[in-house]
Every structure is written in C-alpha cells, then in structure tokens.
Amino acid sequence: xxxxxxxxxxxxxxxxxxxxxxxxxxxxxxxxxxxxxxxxxxxxxxxxxxxxxxxxxxxxxxxxxxxxxxxxxxxxxxxxxxxxxxxxxxxxxxxxxxxxxxxxxxxxxxxxxxxxxxxxxxxxxxxxxxxxxxxxxxxxxxxxxxxxxxxxxxxxxxxxxxxxxxxxxxxxxxxxxxxxxxxxxxxxxxxxxxxxxxxxxxxxxxxxxxxxxxxxxxxxxxxxxx
Length: 226
Known about the structure:
Blueprint: H1 2-10, H2 15-28, H3 31-49, H4 63-72, H5 83-97, H6 108-114, H7 127-135, H8 137-155, E1 156-159, E2 162-165, H9 172-187, H10 197-224
Antiparallel strand pairs: 1-2
C-alpha cells in the first residue's frame, strides 16, 4: 500500500507531492534507516533532473522526462517572476487595503479582473493569505494559530510551566497522524487543496483525531506521574 501511494504521488508530477514524500521519510522512517532513505531519494531525483534526450533518449510524455522537468523547473532563482509570486504579491497588496474584515469569500478572481491584472487565479494558493484576503487578518491569525497550536500541543505536554515530550510509547498510528497533519498544513502554504471537499473533510477528521491524541497524552502523563 505504501509503495503504491508513493508511486501514484510521484506520477502526479507535483512538487508539493515530492516535498511531502521527503518530509514523510524524514519524520516517519526509523532513525537508523532515515538517512539512507533520504540519500536514496535525493540521489534518484537529482540524477533524474540531469537526464535529457541526448543522454537518455525517451519520449516526450514519458514518466522520466516529466519528472525531470518537474524538478528542473523549480525555478528558485527566478521565483520573483513566477506566477505564484505574482499571485501572493497581489494578494498582499489587496489585504493592506482591507486588513480587518477582508474583501469577502471567493473575491480574489473578481478583484484581479477589476484591477486588470496580467494573470488570472481562482485563489491565493496560500491558506493564511487567502483567509486574510477573504475575512481579514485577525481571523486568519486566530484560525491558523489554533491549527498549528493543536499540532504543537500533541507533541509536548505542559504541566507546572515545564514542557515534557509526549510518552515514548505512542503508537505508530499516532505518529502517522501527527505527520499527516504537519504535511497538510505545510502543503496549504503553497496550494489550497483544502477547497476539494474530500481533502477538506479529511483535514478536519485529522484535527479531530489530533485533539483526541492530546487528551490521551495528558491522561498517560498524569498516570505515570502519580
């Protein structure tokens, strides 16, 4: 199952998906094998990025060439000229005009049209910015702080102003649950897949489970220290 999910994620040719695979390897792999997996991952995709038709003649629509283009087109050096940067920059300027209440839900495409922008976009491709644009900076700060705090709270326990790591006997499911929440939050910084009803529903199930993990960790800690 894990192998199939990894392959199908790679076949989406999504840079966000590739980043999520790397994060999963970092946080979920056994410590002894973690560095081996990461090295293999980086080596494979670095090698793939240098493949071209002269070195490895393949069809234009082949998997290897698509993956190679996905990596080589990251374009970090020219990020300022990329469409994603233009979207974020426009969103920030609009947020400055209505900081408290925002412009209203799903208003970004219409605002771009009114301002005669050189590009079109259905959303901001960033959850904090999208919430701030639609509903104001205060709501964006409150909601995002709450979500990240839940993840933080699930990893440590606070008692009498001292921080303790969660019990070491956390199940594999709990570990995977926390990593899934982390990957979801990070992925929403580059795209808003939350608008897909299936992903949106799954995300709230993840946060509900995270809240339950926090309760269980608190009970285990109190039991061990009494």
